[in-house]
Write a structure and sequence with these properties.
There is one protein chain. The protein is of the alpha+beta class. The chain has 15 helices and 22 strands. Helix 2 runs antiparallel to helix 5 and helix 11 crosses helix 12.
Amino acid sequence: MLSLNQNLRQMKKEQQAKTDMTSIETKQSARERRFSARQLEYISGLYDELKPILGNSGLAVVIYHRMRLEVEVHLMTGSQSTMFTMRDIIPVEFEALATDLPVDESPILKYLIGTLQQVPEKRQAFTFEATSTIPAMLFVFGGVEFEQIIRAVNARLGEYTLSIQNAILIDALNRIELELELLQETGTILSMSIQLDDVFKSIVDALEKLISFNAIGIYILRQKGERIDELFSSGYQKATSPELLRLKAGKGLVGWVAKTGEPVIVPNVKQDQRYVAAREETMSELVVPLFFGSEVIGAFNLESDRLDAYSPSDLEMVTAFANQAALSITRARLIQETFEKNKIKEQLQVAREIQKSFQPSKPLKYTGYDIDAVNISSEEVGGDYFDFIPIVDNQLGVTIADVSGKGLPASLIMASFRASLIAEIRNNYAIRTILRKVNNLICESVEKGKFVTAVYGVLDMKNRIFTFANAGHNPPILLRATGEVEFLSTGGWTLGIMPEREYEERPIHIRDGDILVLYTDGVTEAESVGGELFGTERLVELVKTNRQRPAKEMRETVVQEIISFRDPASQPDDLTIVIIKAV
């Protein structure tokens, strides 16, 4: 017992500041009642069966969420049934319930005993694992009929255990499904919207379904971080004054997060010197940064009237949401500002900077591969796009796309395509499903007659397999080390033409010396003075001739040949080329 006590004290120190039991609140809100209908059914059935013999004893179903350091307790006695949540519970405190640790050494036990308003003579715990991160137990308090209760529990323990395990797993899956569904739906709205009001409404509507809050604020940095402006707020009695915003930027939690780029959870704002009071009722706060690329552009702020309202899982959820929302907020804000000012040059420059940010900014270095790519727009902005998207270890998403038309309209469609593609990739769908969903989104959001051709594939760099689908795009060229040439055309319809189209995906093996070339029609349809097209055959011969050269030199040679070939007086198309060499 001594070693357990020492371990508890050490863990307390590592946690830095454990909340005293007097500050632990019972959380009764709908959001905190995570037990699904099936959980309630199982637990109520257990309670109804044992109720006649419980007397003044107690039975608790205790579920521990390791990821959230949170305990959920469903407590039953002969006279009452209640559910409550306890935060910041470390693993050893949960495990100690199964020992004969003194009441004063266990916050969970102390709270349970306090609820019963008596110290039971005996207690016994039946512990089991629901998932790798969710253990649970049946915890029995004993009075005069303790042995009778234990016999009843033991007789049905296997059945009770299986039922509660199933209920917990179903509840966890329902939570994950809801979060993914809302992220996907909201991400679709955000990726397609250029109106700030629509963006903010989507943000608030989605968050209200996931997290409880009493006030929300979205803030943006300006003048290189020297000033912070309020883009949107809700739940405050009056508009935030300029003086308060300046204070927030300098000392407040919002300003601290915007400057450091680190998220923060504050269980009690009254105990945090960084807090700047914007509303008297606020007791706890959650703030996450908004990123555009690697740059912090602002902060996302939630405030609650309850102490310790936000858990690490809430922070993870809001962070994922903020990552998705930041691009749309930035895009909508920039487009709105430029439209209002009616400065076409400035508008195009902003769009060009956004478009540049979509492309890889660092050298493309992957073990076993020599990769190079370039996008050259015919105007300030264009409708071509390529990207390399890390998915999981050794899995690299590769895409190239071409939007019909040129200039700013094409670039906006391309931005929507990119946002939709990345949103669907994050949902871990199969390639054929990703393209089907992206096609539907483009059909719904882009005016008739506009479309996107694209190739999307996943390169398994370890096993050297490239699985792809071609949506009406120029077939990529696969030049084998043996000299054979293959054109990758498997796939389906051009995106945006007709909804609910099906796409076929195909895996191909990549061997040492093989070269994969992806390109847009600006390469093969470059036209000479005499009206001759550069053509696919000329491109294949260039790749063959230069196959021993590094990918960058090969790409530079191809681009230079195209520039030399085409008529200088003609209006060139956007030009994009990607070269992947297996070495």
